[in-house]
Amino acid sequence: MRHEGDGVAKAMAAPFQSVSNKARSSVAYSKSALHINGRYVELDDFNAPADPITPQGRSAASKPSRNKFYFPNTLWSRFFALIGIFETLFTVGIETWVFISVSRRFDEDDNNVGTLRLRSFLGLYIFALLYELALSYDALKRRNTFQLVGLCLCNFGLFVYGIVQMREIRETISGLSISEAAGELLWKHYRIELILIPVFIGVCTILMIFVTWRLRAENSWIIYQSMSADLQMNRRYFTYQVYIALLKFDFFFIFGTQLQVILAMNDFKDSDFILQVAMIPVSIVILILGARFCRLEKKKSLIVVMIFKLVIAASFVLVIRQTYSSSKSNNLAYFKVSLTLFSGLAVLLLGITIVNMVFCMVNFGKGLKEHINHSDKKKQTPDPEYQGSVAGKQRFVLT
Predict the structure, then answer these.
(1) Which of 13, 61, 217, 314 pairs as cysteine with 51 (C-beta 3.0–4.6 A)?
(2) Same domain, yes or no, for 150 and 267?
């Protein structure tokens, strides 16, 4: 009788064992317990978080974090952050020293345009390095791979601009000095430091490219966990990330172009000067609204933002045209190299941003809005490849 009972029990348990073997790869068994009808195994629900329960009765993961400051938590993100910090400290330190030294040396000179030209080169370079460091923190926090790639390209641009800056500063110093010999003597005082800047930035650019390649795999896996295996949603989210990153780079080149145009104007009461000054806050508001309307999927509002961006791009085309005009009263010619670089890149980036904006509008109404707005509230499942929806736990009773 005992052998027959064991056989019946094995036969009845066989279907449940086959089910449990199939589910073992994606779910975890809880501890076995004794039930009034026999031995049972409690299967955890797919959505049930494996977080410890606090005395208040809720999981620790659902508790809002008090510390909102992001700190890089992986090896490669920390390495990228250290590269950005050391690069900024080294280059900003040298540029600041040159800026203060040149300003003291030529403060009593009557050539205000030449002095402003020097200060604009050095000041924009310092601002670019500090802004790039802020973008690096933002890219690591948001795990935006495209923004990290953009930072590598931006760093390469700073490397090129550092080489161009040496020639421009040397020519400006020679023009401001009493004689050519005095200009060469003064240039030798800053030459070694200004040469070290592009060399150091070039080395940091190579390191940043390698680290970005390693971070790409980390960020792709985290996005996959959040989006599951929906390739279409991944593409929509990538398009959105590209658009947001472009807006951040647009701000730098728009601000840099407008600042140089303002420095080239001597008449503070002129209507053109007032218009150029007003364009800076207007451009900032336009970029902020562009990001906000895209997040909320406001198509008509985003079209208005697109029109304003076209107007800004057209104004920069006019700036390039005025820079190369033959008018003798044209002070923009003193900033020809840097102004052409900044305004040209601003127009190019604005064009790419508008095209990407169109792609984002095509993706409106396809579920991306809900994911972006509620991604922080979603709970991460034990298995990212499966998104369950059954509440509670299921019990299988084995007799």
Answers:
(1) 61
(2) no
Of the residues 161, 196, 227, which one is the last residue of a structural domain? 227
Beta bridge pairs of residue 59: 53
The rounded distance, in Å, linking the Cα atoms of 306 and 350 is 10
- Three-class DSSP category at 42: strand
Same domain, 248 and 373: yes
* pLDDT tens for each residue of 356-379: 999 999 988 887 787 776 554 543
Q: Is 57 left (phi over 0), alpha (psi -120 to 50) or beta?
A: left
pTM: 0.71
Question: What is the number of alpha carbons within 13 Å of residue 8 lying toward its C-beta?
Answer: 6
Structure-token pair, residue 82: 């250290």
| Residue 196 three-state SS | helix
**In the listed set 175, 196, 227, which residue is the last one of a domain according to the structure?**
227
The verdict on 254 and 367 lying in the same domain is yes
- The answer to whether residue 394 sits within a structural domain is no
Collapsing DSSP to helix, strand or coil, 41 comes out as strand
Question: Are residue 84 and residue 165 in the same domain, yes or no?
Answer: yes
Bridge-partner residues for 394, per DSSP?
43
Assess whether 210 and 249 both reside in one domain. Answer: no
| Alpha helices by DSSP H, the chain | 2-23, 75-106, 112-142, 145-176, 180-227, 231-263, 271-296, 299-323, 336-362, 368-374
Q: Provide the token pair at 120.
A: 């604009």
Same domain, 78 and 111: yes
For the chain, the domain total comes to 2
How distant, in Å, are the alpha carbons of 18, 123, 215, 241, 331 from that of 222? 33, 38, 11, 14, 51
Radius of gyration of the chain (CA): 30
